[in-house]
Amino acid sequence: MPTLSELHDIKEIINRIREFGGSASKTRIKNSMTMDLNRFELALQKGIERENLKREFGNEYSIIKDVKILESDYYSEVEKSIIIQWKKDKYGEADFHLENTSNKDSKIVGQWTRPDFTLVSIKKFPWTFEKEFDVVTFEVKRPEKSDVLAVFEALSHLSVASKAYVVFPLDLSEWERQNPEQSKRVREECTRHGIGLILIEDIFGSAQPKQIIKATRRQIDNEKCSNFLGSVLSTKGKEMIAAWK
Q: What is the pLDDT of the chain when averaged over all its residues?
């Protein structure tokens, strides 16, 4: 399976070929791009393997079909970025557990109920006896779907979580330039409802999380939360929680 960056590169090559009328030589395509040679060669190879591109006579390349980058294609980089962010927030590896819960076969039903990612964490304090247990949910959207609707989806998760975030794989400057109205409204609704906002910058390169708004912590309903975790977490996740007790 190609990585997210490889899918992006194939799509960029297809866009260039389309600009050249549907077919172009390898040299012409390469000269029109800033991509380094090894990355370019790999994208061409992957494009042919996936039957997105066809090599014609004379080292010409043509388009068979376009590349559609799905939300799930972003998940690997999103997962890495969330882990980076939690470590930035001073959580050790033994203090939190993150899972992709987007397609779990569970009893949870209804619109906007199953988060894309669920994180559980524990925090201890040096001079108090209480532990701070959190269940954090994440609603992920593709760049073109990064709008205020995601905030309301994330809000629905707070019936079973202590914090909820929306995650957009976008650079802040790009988002504000391309869609200033949505950028403003997302910030307003996140602030109003206590939803956190994380952007992932340079998603097709060295992806890095940027926490724009920190989620407000809420008191969880222990019964609902326990039922939720029992439905969506793997055995590994449940065992980690058990070890914290």
A: 93
CA atoms of 86 and 80, how far apart (whole Å): 10
In this predicted model, what pLDDT tens digit does every residue of 50-107 receive, in sequence order? 999 999 998 999 999 999 999 999 999 999 999 999 999 999 999 999 999 997 555 5
Distance in angstroms (rounded) separating the CA atoms of residues 146 and 186: 9
- Alpha helices (H) along the chain: 4-19, 26-31, 37-49, 75-88, 149-156, 172-178, 180-193, 222-232, 235-244
- Residue boundaries of the structural domains of the chain: 4-63, 71-244
Q: How many CA atoms, within 13 angstroms, populate the side-chain half-sphere of residue 172?
A: 11
- How many residues are given for the chain? 245
For the chain, how far is it from start to end, CA to CA, in angstroms?
A: 39
How far is Cα 181 from Cα 202, in angstroms, rounded to an integer? 22
CATH architecture of 4-63: Orthogonal Bundle (1.10)
pLDDT of residue 111 exceeding 70: no
DSSP, collapsed to helix, strand or coil, labels residue 175 as helix
What does the alpha-carbon distance between residue 176 and residue 17 come to, in Å, rounded to a whole number? 29
Q: Is 90 left (phi over 0), alpha (psi -120 to 50) or beta?
A: left
How far is the C-alpha of 163 from the C-alpha of 239, rounded, in Å? Answer: 22
Label residue 112 by pLDDT band (50, 70, 90).
very low
